[in-house]
Structures are given as C-alpha cells and as structure tokens.
Write a structure and sequence with these properties.
With 386 residues, the chain is an alpha/beta fold. 38% of the residues lie in helices and 14% in strands. It has 10 helices and 11 strands. The protein has helices at residues 18-30, 41-57, 72-89, 95-98, 116-124, 172-181, 237-244, 271-307, 328-341, 368-385; strands at 65-69, 107-111, 133-135, 155-160, 185-189, 214-218, 230-234, 311-312, 320-324, 347-351, 354-360. It has a 7-stranded mixed β-sheet with strand order 1-7-6-5-4-2-3, sandwiched between helices. It binds pyridoxal-5'-phosphate. Pyridoxal-5'-phosphate (PLP) binds at residues 12, 71-73, 115, 117, 160, 162, 164, 189, 191, 218, 230.
Length: 386
C-alpha cells in the first residue's frame, strides 16, 4: 500500500521525511553495525546527539538513558525490563542473575485500554499477560485514576499518552502522584502521543508526563523516519543498563556510551543516523509545525464529517478521528467504498462496541488541501452508499 502517500490515513503509520530517507539509504550503504562505539563511532555519536535532542524536544529529564530499538513494542519491552530490574533491585533481588523463580511478586497495573504491545511485553518479561490488574477507563479511553488499586510491594503502573483509537491521554500527573506515594514505577506508552510535547499548542496534554520513570515512543510514527525505529527512555540510566548490559571479552568497551548496553540486541542497524537527520532537517519549530498541522487536519476532518451529519465518536484532541456512517453494515460499506475509490485510505475499528472508520493524520506531507480532497471523496462515497 502507498503508506507514504499524503492521503494515507490508516493505522498510525507516518511517512518518511526526505532527509530521513536519504540518511537511511546512506546508513544502509555504509552498512554500519551500531552495537559498539568502536565498530561505528559515527553512528554511535549520532545516537548520542539524537538522544540529547530527543529528550529536549520531548521535554523529558536530560539525564535519561535511551535505547534506539525497532518500534514501540520493543521500546515498551526495554523500558519495562528496566522497571522490573529496578523494583526488584530495591528488595535486593537481582532479576537478571536470578530470574523470576522465587522472586518477590511484582504487582503490574495497566488500563483496560493498554495497547496490546504493552501486554505482550509484560508476557515476554515473565510478568504475565493475564495476571495484570486492569483499571477501567472513561468514554475516551482514559484511565480512571480514582480506580487504581492499592499499590503494595514492588509495583509497576503503565499509563498511555495517545490512545490508538481516540488519541486521548491518561491523567498522568495524578497517576504519578498516587503511584510514587506507594513507591511504584510509572511507565508511559506514548507511541505517538509523546510527540505532542513538541507542539506548544498540544504540550499541555502531557502534563505530568516528565514525572514518570520510563517512556516508550516511535520515531517511525510521528517523527516520520523510515521503518523501523522506536525509542525507550529511562529516567535512571543505571536501571536501563542493569537490564540490558552485555559484556564479552572480545568486545572492546571504551569510555563512551556503548549502544549495546541499552538495548536488547548486540548487532543492529544504525537507527541514530535517520533519527538525527529527521531532527536536524525539521528543527524544533519544524517538528512542532508538523504535529500542529496534522492535528489541524484531524479537526478539519471531524468538522467536515460532522457538518455532513455523520457522528464523530471521539473528542478530537490530537490526530485521531473516529467516525460512524450509521449502522455497522453501512459504516463497513462506506470504508470499503473509500478504499476502492483510492483518493485516500482509512481503515475500520471498533470503539467501545461501535463500528467506526478511523482516520489517523501522521504524515509530514499531508496538508489541509489533502484533507479537503479526501473529505470530498468520503462524502461522495457515503452518499452513494446510503
Ligand atoms: C499506543 C501504542 N503503543 C504501542 C504500539 C506498538 O508500536 P510498534 O508497532 O511500533 O511496535 C502502537 C502502535 O500502533 C501504539 O499505538
């Protein structure tokens, strides 16, 4: 599919910025193995620089450790491994050495709307897909902070900024306050929502996010670098290194930041190169403008569809729009018709029991003109179906 197209609104895919794509091609041609500083000082340095810029633009604490991984799934896994390391280390348990057999039980809290990749990560870390406590959410998918269970012993609370359907944000500040009072670790899944920090108009949605202990996001979504590229950040870099470190006599480690000490892999592609190029080409204001423009586009979609009499199922706070064209059957036929028409592409979803079409605006190339052209096609198809 033409996912780099300016009118591709499926999933939350993002496009590829020209500078990031060029840098990605160069990095592939250079064929750098970015695991070790000694093997590829340039790409390791570009990771260092990118990490500094990322923490700045995402308004996260400057001293965080960072991991350049494949996507938000592995970023969630990596950050939650650091969380597991930290909450058990506090009790004197070395989980990397001893494993989980006989370890103190960790209480893990997620919302009913936690992304499946968080649940999968917990499973991969031996913390169990099914033994998590699920907290109810409101009509936008936001965790009800008042419904958090009592936290006792080693605990990890997972929150979400940017619900994959509605774009909504958990009340992170309040959850952090309650969790930290009980000594729990707070992990934020912000696969695309964390990028709202770059936009002065949307940064307020992230109130309290910098108080968390770890964060996961995707560069291949809203930073618009080519697949695959995810990022994990951990407030105390020692915990990330504690979970991810690898030593071997044949691998020289110097005084510089060694990428392999922060990620699950040893050999890996030089993701820092295209991330650096994306940030360098956009600059702080360019990234903010990209986020703002995408959100303006989403609002325009919602206004246009609503004015035509179709129901918008979410509060459009970010870049995601859910629209119902009537019954599930009619909505399904309109989605199929839009895909067939080819002016733009959107996919189906189910939101709190209701069938909807989901529009996600996350490409650097999308303009308001693209929205108007897509709206014209959507309304034409919807009229023909009904
Ligand atoms: C909120 C959220 N978390 C995690 C993920 C997983 O990201 P990835 O597909 O990059 O592993 C997604 C993907 O859509 C997401 O929206």
């Amino acid at each position: 599919m033409g996912v780099v197209g300016r009118r591709f609104f499926g999933f939350v895919i993002g496009g590829s910025l020209p500078a990031a794509l060029g840098a990605n091609w160069l990095a592939s041609a250079w064929d750098q193995n970015a695991g070790l500083f000694a093997a590829t000082p340039t790409s390791a340095t570009l990771e260092e620089v990118s990490l500094r810029w990322l923490l700045d633009v995402l308004t996260l604490p400057a001293g965080c450790g960072g991991a350049f991984v494949t996507g938000a799934t592995v970023a969630n896994f990596t950050a939650l491994a650091a969380a597991r390391h930290a909450v058990l280390a506090r009790l004197g348990w070395d989980v990397e050495a001893q494993g989980l057999f006989g370890a103190p039980a960790i209480q893990v809290v997620v919302s009913e709307e936690a992304h499946p990749s968080v649940i999968k990560s917990l499973g991969m870390l031996g913390m169990g897909r099914d033994r998590v406590v699920r907290v109810p959410v409101d009509g936008q998918g936001r965790t009800l902070a008042g419904a958090l269970p009592e936290l006792q012993g080693p605990s990890i609370v997972c929150v979400q900024v940017g619900n994959v359907n509605t774009g909504s944000f958990d009340p992170v500040s309040e959850i952090c306050r309650r969790a930290h009072e009980a000594g729990a670790w707070v992990h934020v899944d912000g696969a695309f929502g964390l990028w709202a920090a770059a936009s002065p108009r949307h940064a307020h949605l992230l109130e309290g996010v910098a108080e968390a202990d770890s964060w996961a996001t995707d560069a291949h979504k809203w930073l618009n670098v080519p697949y695959d590229s995810g990022l994990a950040f951990v407030r105390d870099a020692d915990h990330l290194r504690g979970a991810m470190s690898l030593t071997a006599a044949y691998l020289p480690q110097g005084g510089r930041r060694e990428p392999l000490m922060y990620v699950p892999e040893l050999s890996r592609r030089a993701r820092g190169v295209d991330t650096w190029a994306a940030l360098k080409s956009l600059g702080r204001s360019g990234l903010g403008e990209l986020i703002d423009r995408n959100c303006r586009c989403a609002t325009r979609f919602a206004e246009g569809l609503s004015a035509a009499g179709f129901e918008i199922l979410n509060d459009v706070v970010l870049n995601q729009v859910l629209v119902s064209f009537g019954t599930p059957e009619v909505t399904g036929r309109v989605i199929a018709g839009i895909q067939e028409d080819g002016t733009c592409w959107c996919g189906p979803t189910l939101w709190q029991g209701r069938a909807a079409m989901r529009i996600s605006v996350s490409s650097w190339a999308t303009t308001l003109t693209d929205v108007d052209r897509s709206l014209e096609a959507m309304l034409r198809v919807a009229r023909a179906v009904s």
